[in-house]
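Example 5.3 — Glycosyl transferase family 9
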Amino acid sequence: MDLSAFRALWLHRYRKYTYILGEYVRALGTIAHFSALKISFRGRKQLVAILRTEHFGDIVAAEPLARQVRALTPDAYIVWIVRPVFKELVERHPEIDEVWAQPSVLQRKLVCESGVFEKMYNLEFWQSNRDPISEHVHQNRVAAQKDITVFNYFEKGNLLSIFQQCAELPVLDDAPRVYIDDVDRERVDALQLPEKLIVIHCSSNYPTKDWSVENWHTLTNWLMLEKGYYVAEIGLKNVIQTAHPQYINLCGQFSILQTAEIIRRAHFFVGIDSGPAHLANAVGTFGVLLFGRLNNFDAYMPYSGDYRNGNNALMIREPGKTCAALDYGLVKAEMETVLEQIPKAATVI
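Solution (predicted structure tokens):
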């Protein structure tokens, strides 16, 4: 080993073990905080944690569990553990007493395995919780026993029912909710959105779920030019490139809950399997959902409530095809039916 390689190795080790030591110290501070809370309760309350840290669509889908846990333990002090970037989704929840925005998987592992929580509802899948620096893994033993992994979870049901199984809770169907405050509503008020509005979301963090850019352009033009709708695109980055006055680019400008409020004000939500579709389910906007084969899941259902049963959603898919391969003519024809019939219930196909 030459000198440069030797220095790089020891620099890597120094950074890794300094990080681990720091996380242990910070975990002790968090454990002390929750221990002090327990002492202050004097046995009158149980300290309970719900653990679902990401992704934001999963957190929205898991929201009914907060109400379910509260119903089971009405006097408990309930803590939701989440990544900082998604904190807004649970910090206003009326059944959540505190949100712990975990700094790292390692620190979360140390706190959760300390025994400070008297009851832990772990909604994470087996094999999905590795700290990238320390390489420690926070394991969900219940998910392991039930063989719920990142590779097979949609074989077990929709996301809500899977989370309930991971947490050993009764499997009950319920629609998710989001809690939007006046500040976020006022931010959306300032947009002065048109009444005849469709919100679209065109791209995910996983290209296999996406429909083609060409098809999105064609659909958007049809909605604007032939159907007379304004079309607002949401997401991190816009897919549609047009100067048409009925197109509104709202990408990358709003928080998650502000985006939910934008969706709530639309006549329809049209999108792929992604976080914003879960927001649409939560705010009750009719959804037209473009689906396809995902990895080894030929047909799967992420949603609960009226998106699951088809009362407030139309799911368009073709057997054996990915979303990218969905035929534009089929999507247009199904949407034509929806535009004519809503508010009647749609049929999931």
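Remark. The longest strand covers residues 77-82.
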